[in-house]
């Protein structure tokens, strides 16, 4: 059972945010070009106010119902992205609350976007760049046709590389996603977590999804 992240300290969060920005700058990237998304799946709703006090502005939630509840509990405090596995029946419920659904990867999701999206709706398409069996995401070779079928604007791509202890193992997968984004002239690359975000930044990430890196004392 995963332990909830409790007892957050706004000063610690703020210091961690600053450290991450400094590390991003150390790669040669402009920190203003890399959004830091706080992944809050394991952060209790009542702790989210601490993140706001610590300077966090962008949150990512894996659970559709919880995202809606938290967004309503903190109106206007955060920008929200949905980063979990997408059930197409949840698309309609998510759209009023999110900037991006980052995990669009099925034709059933496209059908729901066609029904409930608006001219302002933007999404990220999740790509299974490593071709992992049973993992969600559009295959790299099928991306072009998937993008053509998408009824709303695609702002970029997202990926989750295979689990690995060495961040360098993620580099070829991040590089492959960046190449796909360049090929299709897409602006955003959501890739990199607490374990490998600096490698992701070096390969062009514009959004990194961080959890414990932001929350824990050094």
Order of helices and strands: HEHEHEHEHEEHEHEHEH
Q: Give the count of structural domains.
A: 1
Shape: globular
Write down how many β-strands occur, each being a DSSP E stretch of 2 or more residues. 9
- Supply the helix-strand structural class: alpha/beta
From the N-terminal CA to the C-terminal CA, the straight-line distance is 24 Å
**Share of helix among residues?**
25-40%
Q: Report the CATH architecture.
A: Alpha-Beta Barrel
How would you sum up this structure, described in words?
With 218 residues, the chain is an alpha/beta fold. It has one domain (10-215): TIM Barrel, CATH 3.20.20. It has helices spanning 10-26, 48-53, 64-73, 91-94, 107-116, 143-149, 171-183, 197-202, 212-215; strands spanning 35-39, 58-61, 79-82, 100-104, 122-128, 138-139, 153-158, 188-190, 207-210. Strand 3, helix 4 and strand 4 (100-104) form a beta-alpha-beta unit. The longest helix is centred in the first third of the chain and has 17 residues, at 10-26. It is globular.
Please write out the topology.
Layout: H1 10-26, E1 35-39, H2 48-53, E2 58-61, H3 64-73, E3 79-82, H4 91-94, E4 100-104, H5 107-116, E5 122-128, E6 138-139, H6 143-149, E7 153-158, H7 171-183, E8 188-190, H8 197-202, E9 207-210, H9 212-215
Parallel strand pairs: 1-2, 1-9, 2-3, 3-4, 4-5, 5-6, 5-7, 7-8
Gist?
By secondary structure, the chain is α/β, with parallel strands linked by helices.
Throw out a few tags for this protein.
TIM Barrel; 9 strands; 218 residues; alpha/beta
